[in-house]
Design brief:
The complex is a heterodimer of chains A (237) and B (390). Chain A is of the alpha/beta class and 237 residues long. Chain A contains seven helices and eleven strands. In chain A, the strands form two sheets. Chain A has a six-stranded mixed sheet with strand order 7-8-9-4-10-11, with helices on both faces. In chain A, strands 1, 2, 3, 5 and 6 form a five-stranded antiparallel sheet that branches. The longest helix of chain A has 18 residues. By secondary structure, chain B is an alpha+beta fold. In chain B, helix 1 crosses helix 9 and helix 2 packs across helix 9. The chains are: A alpha/beta (237), B alpha+beta (390). At the A-B interface, helix 2 and helix 3 of A face helix 1, helix 8, helix 9 and helix 12 of B. The structure holds adenosine-5'-triphosphate and magnesium ion.
Amino acid sequence: MILVKTRNLLKCYPMGLRKLTALKDINLEFQRGEFCGLIGPSGSGKTTLLNIIGSLDVPSQGSVTVLDKKIEELSHVEAARLRRNHIGFIFQTYNLLLLYTAYENVEFPLLLIEMPEAKRKKKVMDALDWLGIADKADSRPAQLSGGESQRVAVARAIVKLPQLVLADEPTANLDAENSFNILEMMVKLNREINTTFIFATHDEKVIRYLRRKIHLVDGQVVKDEIVNQERGNPCRH
Amino acid sequence: MPALRLAYRNVVGKGLRTWLNVAVLSLAYVLIIWHQGIFIGMLRHGSQAMIDYEVGGGQYWHRNYDPLDILSYDDAHGRIPAELSELISKGKATPILIRQAAIYPEARLHSVLLKGIDLSQTVLKIPSHHLKNDKEALPVLIGKRMAKRIAMKIDDYITIRWRDAKGTFDALEGKIVAIMDTPATAVDKGQLWVPLEALQKMVQLENEATLIVVGRDVVSIQDLPEWKFKEPDFLMRDIIEMVRGKRVGAAILYAVLLFLAMLAIFDTQVLAIFNRRKEIGTLMALGMSRGSVILLFTLEGAMNGILAMAVGAIYGIPLLVFTAQRGITLPEVTEEFGFAIPPKLFPFYSVGLIVGTVFIVSLTVTIVSFLPTRRILKMKPTDALRGKMS
Ligand SMILES: Nc1ncnc2c1ncn2[C@@H]1O[C@H](COP(=O)(O)OP(=O)(O)OP(=O)(O)O)[C@@H](O)[C@H]1O
Ligand SMILES: [Mg+2]
């Protein structure tokens, strides 16, 4: 089943009088259950592409279909609904809500979809358990380490069991140990509930886990390779 | 969306800044209600005094009677109309005859009004029963302000000079039989109350009156050919206008106070939207629409108003209840108000006042909280996430 499909995607940003082409001729398909990444140097357009797939941005030309919805045709409210119901985001800088506890941060997406209290509580605790941070439920982001913060962010992204998780440099601020832990969790999630993951990264630690590597250079796909590797057995460290 | 709950979390999480705003706002609530309560109390007390001592349930005025034109008084009299005689005999209306006169206390001339009132009337609180006929002198009832002004005590004698209906001067001795302590200055200053029948005889206007005060319980009232009915609201329009003027004047104070509170809230909002642009981006990424984010920020601002209500209630309710029960002692200068101000004023906090104040303040807070959030409409989620204002 095709989850995401881009057709002749072009994205330009106005740069003074000229235009900067951030993405060009992107034709990609992502299947359900993929564990793949956009790889490329800084400025190659990884974040831009991820944001468009995540309906946070729109293409300048071409078409992007996510879960049978054309991103370029969605209203702001419809895009918000798509994200709310089906997409989880993980950011390089965690982006936790600073006034909320870890528990409340993870609970937030469920509040948005108005899940009833009892069910919500269970889901939040499950997610925290899953990521091994149940004991940090009442801590606020300021009291968490980077690794813990990112685990809360992952729990927040996956708690509603979205179809698609988009992770932009999720390990860039983490050490090897924490990166490894986070990635193992993601792999496990992908394996156990078939959640689709798309990364944007240039971190070797992440790249080793990917089963599909899409190489971007100057906004264009230069290589799209499927890696044949045993699941859960990447070469470590 | 449980925006209210999220907003509450955010507001309380903001700490000191929130509590400063809340403190100023709560002061606005309490001060407005307290202050306005005093004016309403003043109006209620003043109009009650007027109703009790002067206005009753309204007055029939002889068509020539114009209270602002003293010279008209001597022509303003007519036979008490038959239509009202039943009410009068039942004690539900009472005629009053007004004549000009002069008195000479301490050898100085004072112009006064002689007001003839029925001894047995109960329509007004004027203690006319004191005016029992006395063979040697005309019994006179005065108010305490008048007594002070002309330096008279009970049992003092006073020479009264007046003109009868034909314009002939006449004079006689009056005797102060009672001094009344009334909150209504309008029945006190410059007036001598005398028995109606005696006055009618003195001026040869038997069975005539200048005005007829109707009891408060009389309902069916029509104008009569020679007599025009004046509603209590008309008769009390001066005091109503005066208090209204004072209330409006006080609004300037509230406006300043509210302005300060609003400035603080506006500032907090603008700053919050700027500081929290990355958070706004995150909220959008998590699936909140711009509208929901705007609602959230607006509610956060409006929550200041709700918290202020709670905080205001904590110190405001005891203050309001205490003053409403114990009254407020007012300084002497309040005699200048021109209407009855009691030495102890009981503020009155009506439901309308409280609901109205809460409504206006909350509405203002909400509008002020909303205005800066329109900035969010122009924000792109991607820019917000990067901490950029778009
Ligand atoms: N909002 C924007 N306005 C103008 N130019 C932008 C904007 N966002 C991205 N760009 C430009 O588009 C290009 C691609 O940016 P993008 O952020 O997608 O790169 P990236 O591959 O994610 O880089 P990095 O690895 O540094 O995160 C860059 O040249 C960048 O300067
Ligand atoms: Mg990037």
